[in-house]
């Protein structure tokens, strides 16, 4: 089995990629709909295990000088106990090994699932970047921690390891500024999944080359269809969405005229996203 086939199997077996039934599309935060949803952090082994680590990160991140070691300890245990996560981390490390760099960085929260273990495996220091821009340096044993100041990493090279790249908005907002503020550069970044939605191009314009274990494209779903992980109907739906996402939505709303009303009636996030969808000019509300 090829590396790409293995990754596709991992994505579907952990439900890191979920494909909807034809009449039940997924809501995206932007107020649009689509046929698949990606939770790359489920590659930690399962949804339950991933949610437990997310909670641990949330509980610990308020103490920046102690949280990296606590998170690293949990991740190391999972690496030892879960064969899928073990093999994925080894694959990430093998992709990074040919490059010349000084440190590995990861951003709060989901990047930590992959960046921290990669740093351990490659015997590199790790920079944990928080959403507020704070950067914490840990040694490769995750026992020494320091909040970084301007130019503390002067002229060093960082590889940022991410779970997912979409438009690279987190890089623009926090990851790149934090690394540069420390005096370092980010010539490369590795993502487990590239959603192929403009992130690669943005990063290239900032001097950062994107490496990705896999990309969300037609070929990935072709492999899933061949492996009987999705149906022919689901594949055609995804194919249409990848080619023309706006047309996919308009056609769905035309053939399901009550969908938005039903979603609004459900309340909560469904209502919020349905109303956002209407504000964007998609679909129409009956009555």
Question: What is the compact description of this entry?
Answer:
This protein is α/β, with parallel strands linked by helices. It has helices at residues 3-13, 47-60, 67-81, 83-96, 112-121, 169-181, 199-205, 218-226, 232-243, 245-255, 259-266, 268-279; strands at residues 17-19, 26-27, 33-34, 36-38, 103-107, 126-129, 135-138, 145-147, 157-165, 185-194, 209-215. The strands form 3 sheets. A 7-stranded mixed β-sheet has the order 8-7-6-5-9-10-11, with helices on both faces. Strands 1-4 form a two-stranded antiparallel ribbon.
Distance between the termini: 54 Å
Largest sheet: 7 strands, mixed
Strands side by side in the biggest sheet: 8-7-6-5-9-10-11
The rounded Rg comes to 20 Å
Beta-strand level of the residues, as a percent range?
Answer: 15-25%
Q: Residue share in helices?
A: 40-55%
Question: How many separate helices?
Answer: 12
How do the helices and strands follow one another from N- to C-terminus? Answer: HEEEEHHHEHEEEEHEHEHHHHH
- Quaternary structure annotation: single chain
Q: How does the helix and strand content classify structurally?
A: alpha/beta
The overall pLDDT, averaged over residues, is 94
- Show unreliable segments: none
Structural shape? globular
- Number of beta strands: 11
């Amino acid at each position: 089995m090829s590396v790409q086939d293995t990754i596709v199997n991992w994505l579907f077996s952990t439900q890191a990629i979920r494909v909807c039934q034809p009449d039940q599309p997924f809501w995206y935060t932007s107020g649009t709909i689509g046929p698949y949803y990606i939770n790359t952090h489920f590659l930690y082994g399962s949804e339950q295990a991933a949610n437990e680590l997310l909670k641990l990160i949330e509980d610990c991140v308020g103490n920046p000088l102690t949280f990296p070691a606590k998170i690293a300890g949990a991740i190391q245990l999972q690496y030892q106990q879960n064969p899928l996560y073990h093999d994925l981390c080894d694959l990430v490390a093998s992709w990074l090994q040919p490059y010349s760099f000084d440190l590995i960085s990861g951003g709060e929260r989901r990047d930590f699932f992959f960046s921290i273990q990669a740093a351990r495996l490659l015997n590199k220091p790790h920079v944990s970047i928080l959403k507020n821009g704070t950067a914490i340096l840990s040694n490769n044993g995750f026992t020494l921690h320091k909040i970084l100041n301007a130019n503390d990493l002067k002229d060093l090279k960082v590889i940022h390891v991410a779970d997912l790249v979409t438009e690279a908005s987190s890089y623009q907002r926090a990851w790149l500024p934090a690394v540069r503020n420390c005096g370092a550069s980010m010539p490369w970044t590795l993502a487990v999944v590239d959603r192929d939605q403009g992130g690669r191009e943005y990063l290239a314009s900032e001097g950062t080359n994107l490496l990705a274990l896999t990309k969300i494209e037609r070929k990935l779903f072709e492999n899933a269809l061949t492996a009987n992980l999705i149906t022919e109907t689901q594949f055609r739906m995804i194919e249409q969405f990848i080619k023309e996402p706006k047309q996919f939505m308009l056609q769905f709303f035309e053939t399901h005229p009550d969908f938005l009303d039903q979603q609004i009636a459900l309340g909560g996030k469904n209502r919020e996203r349905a109303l956002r969808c209407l504000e964007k000019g998609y679909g129409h509300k009956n009555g």
